[in-house]
Amino acid sequence: MASALARQTAAPHHPQVRPLRLMIVDDSLVARAVLTRMVELGGGIEIAAVAGTAEDAVEALAHVRVDVILLDLEMPGAGGLNKLPDILRVARGARVLIVSSLAEEGAAATVRALAQGAADTLLKPGTGRIQGRFADILIAKIRALGITEEEEATPSGPTPAPLRAMATEELSLLAVGASTGGIHALGRFFADLPRRIHAPIIVTQHLPPPFMDVFARQLGTAAKRVTRIAADGMRLVDDEILIAPGDAHLTVEERRDGSLAVRLTGGRASSGCLPSVDPMLASVAALKRPGAVGVILSGMGRDGVEGSTALVASGGSVLVQDEETSAVWGMPRAVAEAGLAAAILPPEKLARRVASRIGQTHADQ
């Protein structure tokens, strides 16, 4: 019998909205107890199951349904990282939040977990320090990832507007923005994108600077393309990926010879994000190239709406990830609700839509 324990706990009453159901997977009894107490004090979250190993979690998920799974990576047995694909397979749509001391800044394990489908990560401090700001951040992340069916069914804003017609000009520049859940979505997107699209590619993914080297290497491997962290003045090259560094906005400008170059900028974006998708897309819009395409993948918040507005106004097109495949349908939803999207599709189909814009002169190359 698995040591995972399905539990029912009292939660504060929230009219018409059931509590979020949470599973905690951690081999430390102390950590499980502290996390449980912290989450329950936050209100509106029910501990539905706990497990001491990833193997126990897989077994328990066959019997209990949850919205969010807190997963430690370093545990006895196969460990959380190696068992993550199995957990996601049986989780029935539950989102996984990595809460681990291995989620150190720059840790390869963190980016690997995100690439495999974890929605978000949070560095677990020493057990005696799991409190204060950590608790606030943890609860906020759980709530963002664990939107219940009742909440989704409750109108909270405008529904997505009708899709716009996609421009027909030959693809000239591809700009991709993503946040929470975006690393996994990026992998799926680039796996179906042709190796030769004959246009440069720029990417803004919300990540802190220490993660960027690992992220760039993993994205390059997944995309099978030259992938670099953008530096000021760097020239854009067809079929190569330039990634926004974690401490600056990636924007582009046209040189006198018609080539494109990176211009890194600082300052606060209206979204509050650094790097932000908005300045990237706004700079693409300023080029006034109708063949430019923006893609907005899974992410929390509204980053990308202002930039998408500018890009569409300049004649470009914007595609967004669908709700079903998004870890958090925040950024894509905001763009769709603003009436800016030409397509709302899973990442693989978005890639095929982009591929349809490859010019006829290049289609057979």
TrEMBL record:
It catalyses: [protein]-L-glutamate 5-O-methyl ester + H2O = L-glutamyl-[protein] + methanol + H(+). The active site is at S179, H206, D303. CDD domains: CheB_Rec (cd16432), REC_CheB-like (cd17541). This is protein-glutamate methylesterase. It comes from Sphingomonas astaxanthinifaciens DSM 22298. The modification 4-aspartylphosphate is found at D72. The gene is cheBII. Keywords: Chemotaxis, Hydrolase, Phosphoprotein. It is an enzyme of class 3 (hydrolase). Residues 162-361 form the CheB-type methylesterase domain.
